[in-house]
Specification:
Helix content is 36%, strand content 24%. It is an alpha/beta fold and 325 residues long. The strands form two sheets. Strands 1, 2, 3, 4, 5, 6, 7 and 16 form an eight-stranded mixed sheet that branches. An eight-stranded parallel sheet has the order 10-9-8-11-12-15-13-14, with helices on both faces. The radius of gyration is 19 Å and the shape is globular.
């Protein structure tokens, strides 16, 4: 039997507080050399639409798996998720596929959970103000996820459409019982923010490094290929940067690649992985005045670990559909 788990069940079973714990362990294992994964493969379709394939092997109790997902950035305008596809989980003992899950929903939750892990590892412990650029599903998810690792006292959100930002602010204020303000500009959004998350579909930088105060932590999330960058090279140079997966960022991290092409940084500027900080092999923040950055491209260990958690929960509480395969 092959278990099939749809979007609604993934959302019901994969809570942020649990996913943060699961992803933290997966990223730690990645940096400790306990996993085996290929670099993400991206195939252009048309325009900015792409097909991405990721695969990885984890500890026997988790198994191994793959994600095949299309990314259609314009889907948001149609009320659809930009990420569409499946995560396939295999049994480590037999090699049989045991579960297929909705990749778009796993990606939404685990991406924000990973940023929360990075924020917990790198942001100042008293960080309490958050700015989120982009009010799509990732922007909203990041506010909720980060509220689990820091006590937030204020949140600003920005979107290219100020009406969209106002709607997001109203929704977040109600769901999280936090004061959330819709900023009219990127510069206004990040002013005095302790934590910044960029979750946009921008191709070229919309956040300038000179706008950030000392001590800020930033999660760079929206740019997921080598040709796009949400922040300028000044910010890259100013920041102490950690990756979800260093090799991936060196080859596909758009912000780093632009700064590197300009001769401003070399590969040593990507100091290590968040897992290195979690494992204690590298210090994340040396002082409260440093700017720290986490570059997220998304990694298969996050998907497989999250998929395994959902599969185990389905086995415990029931759910999903059984298919003879």
């Amino acid at each position: 039997m092959l278990k099939v788990v749809g979007r609604d069940e993934v959302r019901r079973l994969l809570r942020y507080k649990d996913c943060i714990r699961v992803v933290r362990s997966a990223m730690s294992d990645l940096s400790a050399g306990k996993t085996n994964q290929m670099l993400r493969r991206i195939t252009p379709i048309r325009g900015r639409n792409v097909l991405s394939v990721m695969a990885g092997v984890m500890a026997p109790e988790i198994g191994f798996g793959a994600k095949v997902i299309s990314v259609f950035p314009e889907n948001a305008k149609l009320g659809r998720q930009s990420h569409q596809g499946v995560v396939i989980l295999f049994d480590a003992a037999t090699g049989e596929p045991v579960c297929t899950l909705h990749a778009g929903e796993i990606t939404r939750i685990r991406t924000a959970a990973a940023s929360a892990v990075a924020t917990d590892a790198l942001a100042n412990v008293d960080a309490s103000s958050l700015a989120v650029l982009g009010c799509g599903e990732q922007g909203l998810a990041h506010v909720e996820a980060i509220s689990h690792v820091r006590t937030l006292r204020s949140v600003r959100v920005w979107a290219r459409s100020h009406d969209a930002a106002r709607r997001a602010a109203s929704e977040l204020s109600g769901s999280l019982n936090l004061p959330v303000e819709a900023a009219k500009s990127v510069q206004e959004a990040v002013r005095d923010a302790h934590i910044v998350c960029t979750t946009t579909a921008a191709v070229d930088p919309l956040l300038m490094g000179e706008w950030l105060n000392e001590g800020t932590h930033i999660n760079l999330v929206g740019s997921s290929d080598g040709g796009s960058a949400e922040v300028d090279s000044t910010l890259v140079v100013r920041a102490r940067i950690f990756a979800d997966h260093r090799e991936g960022v060196l080859q596909q991290g758009g912000e780093y690649l632009r700064a590197h092409a300009e001769g401003l940084v070399d590969e040593n500027h990507i100091l290590g992985e968040i897992g290195d900080v979690l494992n204690g092999s590298m210090k994340g923040r040396w002082s409260s005045r440093e700017i720290t950055a986490y570059k997220s491209l998304g990694h298969i260990v996050q998907d497989v670990a999250s998929a395994r958690y959902v599969y185990d929960r389905v086995q415990e509480v029931g759910g999903g559909s059984d298919v003879v395969f």
